[in-house]
Amino acid sequence: MLKVENIDVYYGNIQALREVSLEVNEGEIVTLIGANGAGKTTLLKTLSGLLKPKKGTIEYLGKSIAGKAAQGIVKSGISQVPEGRRVFANMSVEENLDLGAYLRKDRDGIKKDMERVYELFPRLLERKNQSAGTLSGGEQQMLAMGRAIMAKPKLLLLDEPSMGLAPLMVQTIFRIIKEINEAGTTVLLVEQNAHMALSIAQRAYVIETGKVVLSGDAKELQESDEVRAAYLGGL
Amino acid sequence: MEWLQQLVNGISIGSIYALIALGYTMVYGIIKLINFAHGDIFMIGAFVGFYGLTHWHIGFIPSLLAAMIICSILGVVIERLAYKRLRNATRIAALITAIGMSLLIEYTTIFFRGAQPEAYPDDAVISKTFTIFGTQISSESIIILATTIILMVLLQFIVHKTKIGKAMRAVSHDMEAARLMGINVNNTISATFAIGSALAGAAGVVFGLYYTKIDPLMGIIPGVKAFIAAVLGGIGSIPGAMTGGMVLGIVETIVSAVGFSMWRDAAAFIILILILIFKPAGIFGKNTREKV
Ligand SMILES: Nc1ncnc2c1ncn2[C@@H]1O[C@H](COP(=O)(O)OP(=O)(O)OP(=O)(O)O)[C@@H](O)[C@H]1O
Ligand SMILES: [Mg+2]
User: Fold this and answer.
1) pLDDT tens per residue across span A37-52
2) Which of B108, B76, B114, B94 is nearest to B36 (CA)?
3) Whose CA is closest to atom 14 on ligand 1?
4) Which CATH architecture does the domain made up of A1-77+153-235 adopt?
5) CB contact residues (below 8 A), chain B span 155-184, against chain A
6) How far apart are CA B5 and CA A70, in angstroms?
7) Where are the domains of chain A?
């Protein structure tokens, strides 16, 4: 479904990604783990069209999307839940969800998906007229996810959805990611919480200072000494 | 009843400041630029209205609409030609460009039609004076207030209920997150310039009705005053610009009324200094972010 090959991404003169290659197949949950500053967010931003790769190719559903504008990428079915949630704090919960469906014209479909989001996240329904800036961190994460679902994505990119959340909320979020995936959406999940991420993903990539250093079956990586030492808090 | 009279006058001039201030505040809210050419767009609006009334003889409302349309096109052209490429430049570079744009509009106008003033015709609208509680209210005042209220209600509707309005609020809050929604940021910024400039154009026409005399440099003082009104209300805030404009208009009128008419313009600057010292975020400002 998504095939990234040898991309280099720069911020000015600073190189953030070096020959990164990665693949996501339809129906999968793939996770990308790595330390702070490894380049995970950079990769997702590049996939969403916020950054342009200097080199390499990105193929999505058989078409090149490298360097395409963000609008076109959302339209083609890739939506992102950005790091730090980035909800529109000055707007209500419902307006945030409406913005998620910004490019859609199918009113009935939008209405149905809105109901689905409220089913997945009943807390959002209770707070639909509340301004998003006053939601708790966990609720904002739910809203950011709901907003991305409103775009009706085929591929959902999630950037550290568990960041700053209490363990119980983290479990809820991961359960919902699984549910979304089971309902037919492919997921690329960036996480610091390697343990949780590896437990729901089929495959995983490990990124270090802009390079993919390991990849493979999620279960196998979870067992591997390198990953355990570096990301799962020792042996 | 003298006070009521001053209040009516203050509201009339305040409406004009408010209409101009809205454009400043909307543009600032979305790209953090103080568009110094905004006062000159107001001037162009006054001239379009003047030509509409005296040369094309199309009547008040069509002249008002013509001024709004031409100004919104002008605003978008300025943004696309001059400001768009500076979006990632330093703020001082953008500011200097805005000042340059202001001078360009002023002196291009003088180049084509000279610097001499024009006068709006007396019969532009039905001229009548009503006396209510001993207060004289001219039909011009009523038209100014009505135009302002209609435009503000329309603006609130656009900003809160339409797709483009939601996009504008999203972009002004977080441009990158807005991109992730599939919002076309460039078009949204252009729409903001179009709407803000249309409001300035309308302000130009009602200014002509109220003060009669217009000239190519007329935009400078109301432009600065409206900027102060926007800061007073909290730059970036739409209700703030409306309130700031009204407050400034009323304060100025009161200062003149109590016999300090020489101090009328100074009052605005004193307000600016006080607000920057004591409440830099303005009346409706939530965050104390840096100001120019
Ligand atoms: N706007 C920017 N300008 C310059 N350098 C940047 C910018 N954004 C990120 N970087 C650099 O690029 C590298 C990768 O950053 P990135 O945000 O992709 O890391 P990350 O893996 O998402 O980290 P984290 O887990 O902390 O979110 C870092 O060295 C960072 O300093
Ligand atoms: Mg990151």
Assistant:
1) 999 999 999 999 999 9
2) B94
3) A39
4) 3-Layer(aba) Sandwich (3.40)
5) 163, 166-167, 169-170, 173-174, 176-184
6) 55
7) 1-77+153-235, 86-151
For the segment A136-157, the average pLDDT, to the nearest whole number, is: 96
CA dihedral A165, A169, A170, A174 (to 10 degrees): -140
Q: Is A36 in the pocket of ligand 1 (CB under 6 A)?
A: yes
Complex ipTM value? 0.94
Q: How far is the C-alpha of B105 from the C-alpha of B93, rounded, in Å?
A: 18
Q: What is the pLDDT of residues A150-201, one digit of tens each?
A: 999 999 999 999 999 999 999 999 999 999 999 999 999 999 889 899 999 9
Please report, as a single letter, which amino acid is at residue B204: G
Say how many Å lie between the CA of residue A120 and the centre of ligand 2.
Answer: 25
Residues above pLDDT 70, as percent of chain B: 97
CB A166 within 8 A of CB A191: no
Q: List the single best residue of A99, A110, A140, A150 to mutate versus B (max B Cβ within 10 A).
A: A99
Residue B69 burial class via C-beta count within 10 angstroms: exposed 0-12, middle 13-18, buried 19 and up:
middle
In chain A, the percentage of residues whose pLDDT exceeds 70 is: 98
DSSP state of A217: E
CA distance B132 to B11: 16
Tell me the average pLDDT of chain A.
Answer: 94
